[in-house]
């Protein structure tokens, strides 16, 4: 069963409308609808909030590792690379040490953003920014190699 379908089924069992769930999560009803139709995926922090509201374990909705890997795969879906691991290693060697370590801790060791932030004495927002910028750089790097 897809993540969105699980959210929809659990929400219905809990007797909540999309609007009611959205209000509890401080998001729009349209966002809940997109999750339920698997147009986009909530991050794991949001999955934990959804699970709390619906009185289930977060793993009933999505495993932590699936959430982290979805974050990485979502931007690679349109990349066609025959040797992605080799390309990734070459790309990582071009990064500053901290950015490389943050990327590896998140996507190889599947560490929480809060843990990474604590280890590097930076804010969670800063970790998210580093990861977003690194993913964009990686995508650009791959597109340059394929062209």
UniProtKB/TrEMBL annotation:
Coiled coil location: none
GO molecular function, one term: sigma factor activity
Keyword DNA-binding: yes
Domain HTH cro/C1-type intervals: 7-61
Entry keyword set: DNA-binding
CDD domains: HTH_XRE
GO term, biological process aspect, one: DNA-templated transcription initiation
Classification via InterPro entries: Cro/C1-type_HTH, Lambda_DNA-bd_dom_sf, RNA_pol_sigma70_r4_t2, RNA_pol_sigma_r3/r4-like, WH-like_DNA-bd_sf
Pfam families with a match to the protein in the record: HTH_3, Sigma70_r4_2
Superkingdom, taxonomy of origin: Bacteria
Protein name in UniProt: HTH cro/C1-type domain-containing protein
Organism the protein comes from: Ruminococcus flavefaciens 007c
């Amino acid at each position: 069963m897809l993540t969105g379908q699980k959210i929809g089924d659990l929400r219905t069992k809990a007797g909540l409308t999309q609007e009611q769930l959205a209000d509890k999560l401080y998001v729009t009803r349209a966002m809940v609808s997109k999750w339920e139709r698997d147009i986009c995926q909530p991050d794991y922090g949001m999955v934990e909030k959804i699970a709390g509201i619906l009185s289930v374990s977060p793993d009933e909705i999505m495993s932590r590792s699936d959430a982290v890997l979805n974050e990485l795969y979502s931007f690679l879906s349109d990349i066609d690379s025959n040797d992605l691991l080799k390309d990734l290693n070459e790309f990582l060697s071009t990064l500053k040490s901290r950015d490389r370590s943050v990327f590896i801790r998140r996507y190889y060791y599947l560490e929480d953003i809060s843990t990474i932030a604590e280890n590097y004495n930076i804010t969670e927002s800063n970790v998210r920014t580093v990861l977003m910028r690194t993913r964009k750089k990686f995508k650009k790097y791959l597109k340059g190699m394929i062209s």
